[in-house]
């Protein structure tokens, strides 16, 4: 029988966040494919897991993918893990999964920690609808072009960002999206975890003064359509405008239509008030 490809979530900082199912899976597979074997070896050593470990990352060749698929077809079970969190979310592995599915292999997900979801639910912003955008482009021009395309997306926006680009990314977010609410989440689940919830301008000033360290996840308020409501209009204003128009020779029906248009009220209300 063919083996199974397991997609196993690993902690994003706090090692206690690993699940019992993840530990059991990693203990039982024939091979663990890791984004960075140096990082993953620390995790495996901590939990006394001694299964064979190989590297599999974004620069892995098609030949390496083919070798893993062949091993799965031969009956071996393989666990794919990233440096932290869920595999495939801004991490390599999608092509391997596609290749495995193309030949009818079984894929099993072992869920767990995720920086994007952790930041989203901690942000204080709406979590009912959201868009995960991963890492924004590295160059400011390309970053602003992408932000312009999603500017009017009403869903909460979630991004990952490297520390050396945080300030320039906050500047671009402020410039393109406006001064929206944002939660800047730093070092999630770790000892120095910090979540700064404030308007973009305030967060930019805060991290400019404080300095930038650690890994970041940004959760930005979605677009809020500016539905301008007409200012409240009292009956006296309506009657006054109607009277002025009719004194100029305008017929009551036409005056009511024009008054309603100018003040944003029902035509019938203007007409009735003029009679009263």
Account of the protein in words:
With 276 residues, the chain is of the alpha/beta class. The chain has three domains: 110 residues, Tetrapyrrole methylase, N-terminal domain (Cobalt-precorrin-4 Transmethylase, domain 1); 105 residues, 2-Layer Sandwich (Methyltransferase, Cobalt-precorrin-4 Transmethylase, Domain 2); 41 residues. Helix content is 42%, strand content 18%. The chain has a five-stranded parallel beta sheet, sandwiched between helices. It has a five-stranded mixed beta sheet with strand order 6-7-10-8-9. α6 links the parallel β6 and β7. α7 packs antiparallel against α8.
State the strand order across the main sheet: 3-2-4-1-5
Mean pLDDT: 92
Helix content: 40-55%
Main sheet summary: 5 strands, parallel
User: Shape from CA axes?
Assistant: elongated
User: What is the CATH architecture descriptor of the largest domain?
Assistant: 3-Layer(aba) Sandwich
The CATH topology label of the largest domain is Cobalt-precorrin-4 Transmethylase, domain 1
Number of helices: 11
Strand-residue proportion: 15-25%
Task: Identify the CATH homologous superfamily of the largest domain.
Answer: Tetrapyrrole methylase, N-terminal domain
Spell the H/E element sequence.
EHEHEHEHEHEHEHEEHEHHH
Q: Name the structural class.
A: alpha/beta
Q: What's the structural domain tally?
A: 3
Number of strands: 10
């Amino acid at each position: 029988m063919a083996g199974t490809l397991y997609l196993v979530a690993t902690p994003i900082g706090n090692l206690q966040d690993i699940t019992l199912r993840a530990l059991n899976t990693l203990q039982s597979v024939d091979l663990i494919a890791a984004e960075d074997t140096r990082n993953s070896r620390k995790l495996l050593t901590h939990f006394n897991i001694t299964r064979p470990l190989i590297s599999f990352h974004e620069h892995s060749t098609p030949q390496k993918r083919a070798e893993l698929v062949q091993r799965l077809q031969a009956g071996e079970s393989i666990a794919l893990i990233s440096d932290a969190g869920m595999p495939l979310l801004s991490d390599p592995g999608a092509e391997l999964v596609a290749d495995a599915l193309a030949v009818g292999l079984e894929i099993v997900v072992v869920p767990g920690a995720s920086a994007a979801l952790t930041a989203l639910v901690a942000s204080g912003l709406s979590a009912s609808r959201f868009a995960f955008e991963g890492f924004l482009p590295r160059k400011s021009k390309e970053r602003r072009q992408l932000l312009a395309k999603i500017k009017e997306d009403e869903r909460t926006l979630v991004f990952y960002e490297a520390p050396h680009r945080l300030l320039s990314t906050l500047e671009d977010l402020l410039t393109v999206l406006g001064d929206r609410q944002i939660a800047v989440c730093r070092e999630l689940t770790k000892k120095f975890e910090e979540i700064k919830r404030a308007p973009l301008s305030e967060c930019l000033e805060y991290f400019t003064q404080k300095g930038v360290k650690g890994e970041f996840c940004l959760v930005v308020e979605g677009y809020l359509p500016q539905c301008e409501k007409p200012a409240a209009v009292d009956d006296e204003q309506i009657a006054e405008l109607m009277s002025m128009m009719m004194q100029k020779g305008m017929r009551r029906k036409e005056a009511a239509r024009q008054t309603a248009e100018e003040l944003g009220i029902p035509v019938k209300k203007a007409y009735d008030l003029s009679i009263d």
